[in-house]
Design goal:
The termini are far apart. Helices cover about 70% and strands about 0% of the residues. It has a domain of about 100 residues. With about 325 residues, it is mainly α. The protein is elongated, with a radius of gyration of 31 Å. The longest helix is centred in the first third of the chain and has 60 residues.
Length: about 325
């Protein structure tokens, strides 16, 4: 990927103005946020693939062993070896376990077990706490959608209206600044103006990026493209008026809010994929460590469940286990 030059106003002879300092600080923050954004996009792709290829297969193996355990208990329930109280406990166990399985799959085998034993289930729906592994379904679009609820405001105060009108006016001015840069760029980069085929293709790619940046109100990148068009001469930024700088600063702040929102959403998604707390996504090395821990835990739970299920195939062990309930 091409490295783009950092947008920075070089120090004028008379020193930086307050607006120029703020412009440079916001420019640095945007660069930093875009680095974080890029890393999170990569991490989400990486760990989504690792979930699908490493963790979910373990969940499926666990599920099959869990189902085999319930089927073992179902066979035991039909045996004459156990008394009425023991069968009552067996029915309650099967109802609880099959209820959990239903939350993971709607297979006919599980449905039939639930229908057969649901009368033993307690009134409150509770999953068995002794044998449990959590799996979130990645295919569910709700997992990757994080939208804030719209706030309805029924006020009609004059001050609020004035503030609203001012905000709209400033947004319009910022949009006008973005559009001015956009028009300047398409005037110079439009591929239809170029006769050389190689240069035309290059400009076509650039036009696609320019159009995308304009649609996203990406003022920062548009300014970078404008400076690159001018052969990297950034001195003209120091010649911007305070009014023009103010529009760019407001545009930068809006862009920072958008990027921070996207980063927060990506962190939540990564946390769901890796089944960790969001706070741990601030350190991608910690995410790797926690993901490996999840893999080890899943393998351990599979081994323990397999051994437990095998042990309960012996009626004496199952009777002893029912005696502990």
């Amino acid at each position: 990927m091409t490295e783009h030059q950092l947008l920075r106003i070089e120090q004028p002879k008379e020193g930086f103005s307050k607006k120029q300092k703020e412009f440079n600080l916001l420019s640095l923050k945007i660069e930093s946020l875009h680095t974080i954004l890029k890393d999170l996009h990569g991490a989400n792709t990486l760990f989504r693939d690792r979930f699908l290829n490493e963790l979910r297969p373990l969940h499926e193996v666990y599920f099959q062993h869990y189902l085999a355990l319930v089927q073992t208990l179902d066979i035991a329930y039909g045996s004459n070896f156990y008394g009425p109280q023991e069968k009552e406990k067996l029915g309650s166990l099967i109802a609880s376990y099959s209820q959990y399985l239903l939350q993971q799959s709607d297979g006919m085998a599980i449905k039939s077990l639930w229908e057969k034993y649901h009368r033993y289930a307690p009134e409150e729906n509770q999953k068995d706490k002794r044998i449990e592994i959590t799996e979130r379904t990645l295919e569910s679009p709700e997992i990757f959608t994080f939208q804030e609820k719209a706030r309805s405001q029924g006020h009609d105060w004059s001050l609020e209206q004035k503030l609203h009108d001012r905000a709209e006016m400033e947004a319009g001015l910022t949009k006008a600044a973005v559009r001015k840069i956009y028009l300047d760029l398409i005037k110079n980069y439009h591929p239809d103006r170029e006769m050389d085929e190689a240069i035309k293709q290059t400009k076509t790619v650039l036009m696609q990026e320019i159009t995308k940046c304009y649609a996203e109100d990406n003022l920062y990148r548009l300014l970078q493209l404008q400076q690159e068009m001018e052969n990297g001469l950034l001195q003209n930024l120091s010649e911007l008026t305070s009014k023009a700088l103010n529009h760019y600063i407001k545009g930068f702040k809006n862009q920072i809010c958008q990027v921070e929102s996207e980063i927060a959403s990506l962190r939540e998604t990564l946390a769901l994929i890796c089944q960790i707390e969001v706070v741990h996504t601030h350190n991608l090395q910690a995410v790797e460590i926690q993901f490996k821990t999840k893999l080890r835990q899943a393998k351990t739970e599979i081994r323990e469940l397999r051994e437990f299920s095998k042990a309960l195939q012996d009626p004496r062990n199952l009777r002893a286990f029912l005696g502990t309930l």
